[in-house]
Design a protein that fits this description.
Arc Repressor Mutant, subunit A; mainly alpha; two-stranded parallel ribbon; elongated; WH_DNA-bd_sf
Length: 165
């Protein structure tokens, strides 16, 4: 699958708009202005659209150019997050945090800690499971990923529920 839109082309487009000129983008990206112009021309040619109106003194984004820039910035942010997460995983960081708790514990007890964790901005998928029928140790045993973290909250309540059954 070939796509004309590359991360590099999106970085060039973003730099042109932020710096206000092709020359400014060239300086920021440590390239010659002709390389910036070539990247934009190639992108326009591949997409068969005009991204900049060059009729005036300054090149101005067309509606298609504005759209590509807005959506492209989302992709640039996602690419940065992906690179960061990949480096974290290479250092042993987990990408998923599974929290299982017994139904005897009110879920509201977890909210402050989860809110604080999410505020750290760490790209981790947090999954919360309330278990009624299974014990938390059974969840750990049936987990498909050995390194999943299962927080056993209120272990005493689990022991109490065994006594009730």
């Amino acid at each position: 699958m070939h796509t004309a839109i590359t991360i590099d082309a999106l970085k060039v487009l973003d730099a042109i708009v932020r710096k206000g000129s092709f020359a400014g983008a060239a300086g920021e990206l440590f390239r010659v202005p002709s390389a910036i112009s070539y990247t934009v021309q190639k992108l326009e040619e591949d997409l068969n659209v005009t991204l900049f109106d060059r009729s005036g003194h300054r090149a101005v984004l067309t509606p298609a150019g504005r759209y590509l820039l807005e959506e492209g910035r989302t992709l640039l942010k996602a690419a940065d997050n992906l690179a960061h997460s990949t480096r974290q995983v290479a250092q042993g960081w987990e990408t998923r945090l599974r929290i299982g708790f017994n139904s005897l514990l009110p879920a509201e007890c977890l909210f402050p800690a989860i809110k604080d964790f999410c505020a750290l901005g760490i790209p981790v998928d947090v999954q919360i499971t309330e278990e009624v029928a299974k014990t938390l140790s059974e969840i750990v045993e049936s987990s498909t990923k050995v390194n999943d973290l299962i927080a056993e909250i209120a272990a005493a309540s689990e022991e109490q529920s065994k006594g009730i059954n």
